[in-house]
Amino acid sequence: MIINGVRWRVRLVSPAHPLLLTPWKTHALGVCDKVTQIICVDETLSPQLLKEVLCHEIVHAFMYSYMIDLSYSEEELVAELMSEYGENILSVTNAVYDGIKMK
Questions:
Q1: What string of DSSP letters covers 26-90?
Q2: Are strands 38-42 and 6-7 parallel, antiparallel or unpaired?
Q3: Environment class of residue 5 by beta-carbon count within 10 Å: exposed (0-12), middle (13-18) or buried (19+)?
Q4: CA angle 71, 73, 75 (to 5 degrees)
């Protein structure tokens, strides 16, 4: 996928894959590496959780690709907001927009 001219690759990997090991030595469900432009996601996740984690990591990729520089906690908050509520936000926005266009 291309985000703002930056090519990102997505890989589904084993939960034991070294790329899913955080600096704190914990297991992550997904990671977005801004140096290699690779997103890795645990391949054993349920379909719904896989979609949420993938969205979370793609939000990170957008922030990196657009040079949005936030603190770690701010970045996680934005990524979590979008992965949890992004579809609902877009759905409501589209409904309101469609209502405005019809007037």
A1: -B-SEEEETTTTEEEEETTS-HHHHHHHHHHHHHHHHHHHTT----HHHHHHHHHHHHHHHHHHH
A2: unpaired
A3: exposed
A4: 65
Residue 11: which H helix or E strand, with range? strand 9-13
28-56 pLDDT, tens digit each: 999 999 999 999 999 999 999 999 999 99
What's the mean pLDDT when you consider all of the chain?
93
CATH 1.10.10 fits 2-102, yes or no: yes
Calculate mean pLDDT across residues 11-34: 91
